[in-house]
Design the sequence.
């Protein structure tokens, strides 16, 4: 049988299309285009064959760029992981509403594009700019009945970061429509709602932008019954997914490889520790990390002599000292779940 | 965008291959071949190009049939649903080990094949026969380290039922290898472990067959710590899956169609009732049922005026009076889950 036929994304919604990556079975450090997770907020937009990107607002010279302009500018290539802010939402207790992602709202690969710095060389930037606003071609009706386009902003410092790019290639091929092509923002280290697809407009503003995807969704609301103490979703939390074995699977006595991936938007992964049945934490072997903003694969050799039920926990620590909590930080909309990952295994 | 690209099976395991059908998004009463769930116990077997099926044991004339013989015999066509005995296993509380199926270990379509009755005309049957044993070409190592082939038996009465067939076509095409072709047993009304794939041998025995897939797996063990009061998994329980809306989704005020499917191995579905926030049970509209052993689609128009959290429950009753329990019958290996289906919706 052909192995290529064996991996599929998990369909979570068809309208709009939402699909999960089969993360437990991915071996490559680069997610193939057809297995990359999909999270749309609206139906797919209709694009003209000749796509344009307008830059305006607090610039000296508003401009409209066409796709061919980008291919003539200086480009850079970056390995970047994207994780949906709702990844693992289904694990929150109490449960929260929204897409019931398991572990697969995360994928990574190599993006080629141009920096915002490069673009702004043509338009200039006024000194009063606070934020850069990115509007996608996608729009539609939200669950509450309101109509909106998908629009998000970045602080000017993040927008001008030398690794924030407007991508037009993924893994060496033109960025496909379903990936957000022809032009998509890629914001390393932030949750993926920041990486706006189907870029249509970029405008620079002198005060904080507000909009449903900026100041209503993608906000942490830590209280159950009100919106006090809210703060925006930005950087990816330090996190781990045990890929193999699968949760609640049955194995025999002997040696088993526990494998997983860990990542953080704040820094490099410096340690992953594993604990069997809540005994001491033992360091796993970190695979040599690839360059860029990617997850770190790790493995741990587990020798098990006796039949019975086992818990296996894994937690990562990054170079800033951030580590995973035993219990995730609960919030109304279910963002940023990053509790220590735990699986249960029966040895038969 | 091409709609054909939007539905995928969910990969639950790659070795052996196990995949779930996207049951929440299926609209057709006939599951297309590429969306039919897959539950293998072992790696795919290697088959000769010239497949044969041997019939022996308590028969008057043991025979070997080749595939072309089947095409010359009188065939029948039947619409049959297959449901894995472990469908919905992930919902058991306390959790149980094994494949963590959600709702998609169920699919259906039209099978063409010949009855066992027809086959046994050629071999005869001795009067002392109690069971008919079906062996597939698939074999391998079980989690406990023991090696086995996939072998299951049927009581002679079920084997001789006029709708128990050896199928060689699915939805009008030759039965594909991944579906168990070229020859697969189809046992309507029983959980799908009975519908042995890649048929190799059929032998008739004068006493009950025992084997790991007959008397160890596919047995209900209702006690947590021992194997007392065990009984075999056979007929499909009356059951319901709410297809739309999805659990924990967000909707607006207004009218929503609640859609689902109900089925039973014991009889026809005669009623499906829906309860909102545990108020009175109201009958849903049953769609005209298709012939054969298939699920019954139903729908219910839900008018909701107020924002807030809602529970929606659905339960089916079949023509024998069997209905779904509030809490599923817990058993060690997690078979036959059929609790009243419940989803939670937030109206925004």
Sequence:
């Amino acid at each position: 049988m052909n192995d290529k036929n064996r991996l599929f994304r998990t369909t979570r919604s068809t309208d709009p299309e939402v699909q999960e990556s089969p993360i437990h079975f991915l071996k490559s450090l680069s997610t193939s285009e057809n297995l990359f997770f999909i999270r749309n907020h609206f139906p797919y937009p209709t694009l003209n064959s000749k796509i344009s990107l307008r830059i305006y607002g607090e610039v000296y010279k508003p401009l409209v760029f066409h796709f061919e302009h980008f291919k003539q500018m200086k480009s850079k290539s970056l390995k970047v992981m994207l994780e949906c802010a709702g990844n693992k939402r289904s694990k929150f207790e109490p449960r929260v509403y929204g897409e019931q992602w398991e572990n697969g709202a995360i994928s990574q690969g190599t993006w080629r594009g141009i920096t915002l710095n490069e673009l702004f060389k043509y338009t200039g930037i006024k000194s009063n700019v606070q934020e850069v606003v990115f509007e996608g071609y996608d729009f539609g009706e939200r669950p509450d009945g309101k109509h909106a386009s998908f629009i998000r902003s970045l602080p000017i410092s993040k927008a001008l970061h030398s690794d924030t790019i407007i991508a037009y290639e993924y893994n060496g091929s033109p960025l496909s429509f379903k990936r957000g092509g022809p032009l998509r923002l890629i914001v390393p280290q932030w949750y993926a709602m920041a990486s706006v697809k189907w870029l249509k407009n970029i405008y620079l503003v002198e005060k904080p932008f507000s909009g449903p995807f900026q100041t209503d969704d993608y906000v942490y609301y830590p209280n159950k019954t009100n919106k006090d103490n809210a703060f925006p979703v930005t950087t990816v939390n330090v996190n781990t997914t045990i890929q193999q074995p699968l949760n609640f699977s049955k194995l025999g006595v002997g040696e088993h490889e526990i494998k997983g991936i860990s990542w953080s938007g704040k820094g490099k992964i410096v340690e992953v520790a594993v604990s069997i049945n809540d005994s001491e934490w033992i360091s796993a072997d970190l695979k040599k990390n690839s360059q860029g903003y990617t997850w770190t694969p790790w493995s741990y050799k587990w020798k098990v002599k006796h039949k019975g039920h086992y818990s296996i926990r894994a937690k990562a620590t990054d170079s800033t000292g951030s580590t995973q909590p035993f219990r995730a930080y609960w919030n109304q909309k279910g963002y940023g779940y990053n509790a220590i990952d735990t699986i249960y295994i029966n040895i038969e």
Observations:
- The mean pLDDT of chain A is 95.
- The first helix of chain A runs from residue 67 to 72.
- Residues 239-347 of chain A form a domain with the Immunoglobulin-like fold (CATH 2.60.40.650).
- DSSP finds four helices and 24 strands in chain A.
